[in-house]
Design a protein that fits this description.
Structural class of chain B: mainly alpha
Helix content of chain A: 25-40%
Number of domains of chain B: 1
Oligomer: heterodimer
Largest sheet of chain A: 8 strands, mixed
CATH class of chain A: Alpha Beta
Helix content of chain B: 55-70%
CATH superfamily of chain A: LigB-like
Order of helices and strands of chain B: HHHHHHH
Radius of gyration of chain A: 17 Å
Strand content of chain B: under 5%
Number of helices of chain A: 9
Distance between the termini of chain A: 20 Å
Shape of chain B: globular
Order of helices and strands of chain A: EHHEEEHEHEHEHEHHHEE
Number of helices of chain B: 7
Largest sheet of chain B: none
């Protein structure tokens, strides 16, 4: 059977690309170091496939048909189409892993989840900034879109349960695949609303403390209460919650947290110590 | 509340070709969308605060990038609008 070989999380603010030259040297160093460490850990895990959980920033879906969760089952996926990403990201297409994607889909359906399905998905900056900045060579990817963008959102508890289901799917996938899971997005940021640009460091640090504490119920309660009160971009922490569920709610290891006003994101990077979970 | 046709306009303008056409002449593009008069007037006036009440905040952000409003100006206007979490 397949093996869960790594669980990771990383922020993906567009200004990390668009306005990199405006980022202070200290913050450039912090972000570069964090992405480098993320890339080192992903390469060290020798993954055969990477499941990436990210929002869709209005690239694939619109309000005429907006899935809460969608799995990309295609043999290939389109690279980012944002003009500022096209210039930077060297891969116009990325390989998929349809067998793993299909197994996740079937496991989901057997487990009481009804995700949407896409046979041709574009992977926007949310999926591709962590790959680009961490220097991860293209490997087969199973993209999973969580709706973190347009309310109403999946509940935090449901996202955690999704992660648990995803772990079960990986554990029952035939073959000797080494599979990783990367949550992309968060932490606090605010886009297109009156608090735009606000990084809520106190919230971020409290959130990170909940991840580290290893009490998923308390984490879910905290986020259920607080996410509606902070900037809209923090909704992407739902993806981290799913990753936490994949890891069984234990082993959270913060690589770096930096509140970076130049990119208007509380930038977080983490991996889960899978060996130390029990 | 979401205004569908305003949202559709903003969504469609993510296409670089459509964005270029829009920048070259807004009226011709706006004519293709069934915008309410007050909504069209707000688009023509770059009324960030009014439009913020009608579309997803990410689409709003994308639109004003496409429309050519400087980042600092957009941030100033959206903060002044007082429009809360989207």
């Amino acid at each position: 059977m397949a093996e869960l070989a790594g669980v990771y999380a990383a922020s993906h603010g567009p200004l990390i690309i668009r306005k990199w030259d405006s980022v202070s040297p200290a913050h450039q160093q912090a972000l570069t170091g964090a992405f480098d460490e993320l890339g080192r850990r992903i390469r060290a895990a020798r993954l055969d496939a990477l499941v990436i959980i990210s929002p869709d920033h209005w690239v694939n879906f619109f309000i005429d048909n907006l899935p809460m969760i969608c799995i990309g089952v295609g043999e290939t996926h389109g690279g980012p189409n944002e003009p500022w990403m096209v210039k930077e990201f060297p891969h116009p297409t990325l390989p998929g892993h349809p067998q793993l994607a299909r197994h996740i889909l079937e496991t989901a359906l057997e487990s009481g989840f009804e995700p949407s399905v896409s046979h041709q998905m574009l992977l926007d900056h949310g999926f591709c900034i962590p790959l680009l900045k961490a220097g991860v060579d293209p490997l087969p990817i199973v993209p999973i879109v969580f709706n973190d963008i347009e309310p109403p959102f999946p509940t935090v508890r449901r996202c955690y349960a999704w992660g648990e289901m995803l772990a079960q799917a990986i554990a029952t996938m035939p073959g000797n695949l080494r599979v990783g899971v990367l949550a992309s997005g968060g932490l606090s940021h605010s886009v297109g609303e009156a608090t735009m640009g606000l990084v809520e460091e106190e919230f971020d640090r409290e959130c990170l403390a909940h991840f580290a504490a290893g009490d998923p119920a308390a984490l879910c309660d905290f986020l259920t209460q607080r996410l509606p009160q902070v900037g809209n971009g923090a909704s992407e922490i739902r993806n981290w919650v799913a990753a936490h569920g994949v890891a069984g709610g234990r082993g959270f290891d913060l690589i770096n947290y930096s509140a970076v006003p130049e990119v208007i994101v509380g930038c977080g990077f983490a991996a889960w110590d899978l060996a130390g979970r029990n | 509340m979401r205004d569908y046709w305003l949202s559709k306009l903003f969504f469609d303008l993510q296409d670089p070709a459509k964005a270029a056409e829009y920048r070259a002449g807004r009226a011709q593009v706006l004519d293709r969308y069934t915008l309410k008069p007050a909504v069209r007037a707000a688009v023509e006036a770059d009324d960030v605060g009014y439009l913020a009440q009608l579309v997803n905040p990410y689409l709003l952000r994308f639109y004003f990038l496409v429309a050519g409003m400087a980042d600092d100006e957009f941030v100033k206007r959206i903060r002044a609008s007082g429009d809360g979490h989207g």
